[in-house]
């Protein structure tokens, strides 16, 4: 079955009433048929039928063995980090969503994990960063917000050689454009609050694992810690996924036109969109993805110009988050990456002139007119 069809129909689901939409099983607990027997559902922190339909759907879309649905992307990441033990070392992409770096630095380090941050596009640097204690690689591609691209297959060869678990945050492209497990990753994680749910109305996280043994370990952590996704929110993510293909294609089409508009605008000094041949990761993108996505970052000439854009946009909302049908503009240095020290932010290009645009599905002429007015 093709991806577009899988998005609409999800994993196979049978319901005795014939309901086409997966019912919302708003139940905390489930009756046992008799002592020692279970319907397969006992208590909703462990299993819930609506959530299971979502977990099977995301496992199918990501070509993995098992899916896990969480109350947020960060809940998914925190559960995954519990697979590791004090003393373990993890190598991560330098440019990651700021909340993940905050988690690593304030929670994981306190729990005895250590981290090295490198440009994971640089395979020599990656080889050099591996120590006897290294257990995993954590990458985003494209990264948030600088759109750095990592060659997943090349990195996975290094990971296999050193017996490391390769974790890929696939939030920016979704399985519609990129399926990391098919090209060597072991775990895929999503902020499903973004493209998968797709409507800026649901907070959710998803993880998919390729290896059944590792999935069993994560299932134990899942039921023990909690952080599971509620039945209604599971249904909202499932409903969002039904239109994932349509939205991804439209958002990408709009993003490409906006990137071309911005590339020739006098106020725009730097443009980061992995769909343009001038982007350093363009060739790798062509090899490992089927699309470039709807995320663009760009630098304007002054901090005042950036502030003006944020106050002048009318259709595009000045708001955190990304991936939904509504276009959103974010100011990474203050919002998503506000907790990263300023010198580190500036070294990564996350300065007070950088804006990040999540392109929605609105009419392209309206979006360009909005940007044109705001960039005056
Ligand atoms: C790439 C990426 N991963 C993970 C997260 C965390 O997800 P959530 O906000 O759903 O907890 C975000 C949030 O913005 C993100 O952009």
Description:
The longest helix is centred in the last third of the chain and has 20 residues. Strand 5, helix 7 and strand 6 form a beta-alpha-beta unit. It is built from 14 helices and 12 strands. Helix content is 38%, strand content 15%. The protein has 376 residues and is an alpha/beta fold. It starts with a helix and ends with a helix. The strands form 2 sheets. Strands 1-7-6-5-4-2-3 form a 7-stranded mixed β-sheet, sandwiched between helices. Strands 8-9-12-11-10 form a 5-stranded mixed β-sheet. The structure holds pyridoxal-5'-phosphate (PLP).
List keywords for this structure.
376 residues; alpha/beta; Aspartate Aminotransferase, domain 2; Aspartate Aminotransferase, domain 1; 7-stranded mixed sheet; 5-stranded mixed sheet; 12 strands; globular; binds pyridoxal-5'-phosphate
Mean pLDDT: 96
Biggest sheet: strand arrangement:
1-7-6-5-4-2-3
How many domains is the backbone divided into? Answer: 2
How many alpha or pi helices? 14
Q: Which small-molecule species are bound to the chains here?
A: pyridoxal-5'-phosphate
Structural class: alpha/beta
User: Which CATH class of the largest domain applies here?
Assistant: Alpha Beta
Gross morphology is globular
- Proportion of β residues? 15-25%
DSSP strand count: 12
Low-pLDDT regions: none
């Amino acid at each position: 079955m093709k991806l577009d069809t899988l998005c609409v129909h999800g994993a196979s689901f049978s319901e005795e009433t014939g309901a086409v939409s997966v019912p919302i099983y708003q139940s905390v607990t489930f009756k046992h048929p008799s002592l020692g027997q279970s319907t397969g559902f006992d208590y909703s922190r462990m299993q819930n039928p609506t959530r299971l339909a979502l977990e099977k759907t995301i496992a199918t879309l990501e070509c993995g063995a098992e899916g896990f649905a969480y109350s947020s992307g960060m809940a998914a990441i925190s559960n995954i980090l519990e697979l590791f033990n004090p003393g373990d070392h993890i190598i991560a992409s330098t440019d990651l969503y700021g909340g993940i770096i905050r988690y690593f630095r304030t929670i994981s380090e306190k729990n005895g994990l250590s981290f090295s941050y490198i440009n994971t596009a640089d395979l020599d640097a990656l080889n050099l960063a591996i120590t006897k204690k290294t257990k995993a690689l954590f990458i985003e591609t494209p990264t948030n917000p600088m759109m750095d691209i990592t060659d997943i297959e090349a990195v996975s060869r290094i990971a296999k050689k050193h017996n490391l678990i390769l974790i890929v945050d696939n939030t920016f492209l979704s399985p519609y454009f990129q399926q990391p497990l098919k090209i060597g990753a072991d775990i895929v994680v999503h902020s499903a609050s973004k493209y998968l749910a797709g409507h800026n109305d649901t907070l959710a996280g998803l993880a998919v694992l390729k290896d059944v043994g590792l999935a069993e370990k994560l299932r134990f952590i899942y039921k023990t810690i909690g952080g599971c996704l509620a039945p209604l929110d599971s249904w909202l993510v499932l409903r969002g996924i039904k239109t994932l293909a349509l939205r991804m294609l439209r958002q990408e089409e709009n993003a490409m036109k906006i990137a071309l508009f911005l590339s020739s605008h006098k106020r725009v000094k730097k443009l980061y969109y992995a769909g343009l041949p001038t982007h350093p990761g363009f060739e790798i993108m062509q090899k490992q993805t089927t699309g470039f996505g709807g995320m663009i970052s760009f630098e304007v000439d002054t901090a005042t110009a950036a502030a003006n854009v944020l106050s002048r946009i009318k259709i595009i909302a000045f708001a955190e988050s990304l991936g939904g049908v509504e276009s959103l503009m974010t100011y990474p240095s203050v919002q998503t990456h506000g907790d990263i020290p300023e010198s580190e932010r500036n070294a990564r290009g996350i300065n007070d002139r950088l804006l990040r645009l999540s392109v929605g599905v609105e009419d392209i002429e309206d979006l360009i007119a909005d940007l044109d007015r705001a960039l005056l």
